[in-house]
Write a structure and sequence with these properties.
mainly alpha, DNA polymerase, domain 1, 2 domains, 4 helices, 69% helix
């Protein structure tokens, strides 16, 4: 069942207000520290689920999506992805991964050329 407007009000009053208080008590520079915010974030998630359950709404739903997009825009938009950026693997790993197919291709090419020259005289 789709959620009523009461869902948004209840989530704002019971869940988001508590989450905002928790994060406002933290120094803003620590908002990006997952260990500092994990408990509050989990409580927000669980609270939004319980409110949906009590009101007979599906969870997750459009309102929940909007809630978490808003939370991320307000509290986590400036968080760097330090340590989570995709990087090339080290040369010791990347080299063999690249050289393997190159060597197989060269070997197969040489084998085909050798085999085609060898069978030319046989008919």
């Amino acid at each position: 069942m789709a959620c009523s407007p009461q869902y948004q009000e209840a989530v704002d009053q019971f869940c988001l207000s508590r989450f905002s208080l928790d994060l406002d008590q933290l120094d803003q520079s620590r908002w990006c520290d997952w260990e500092e915010t994990l408990e509050s974030y989990s409580e927000l998630t669980n609270c939004s689920f319980v409110v949906a359950l009590k009101l007979g709404c599906y969870w997750p739903n459009r309102e929940v999506d909007a809630l978490f997009v808003g939370v991320h825009q307000r509290y986590f938009s400036d968080c760097a992805l330090i340590g989570r950026l995709l990087r090339d693997p080290p040369t010791q790993v990347c080299g063999p991964i690249i050289m393997g197919p190159v060597l197989v291709t060269l070997l197969m090419t040489a084998l085909v050329v050798w085999r085609s020259k060898r069978s030319e005289g046989v008919l």
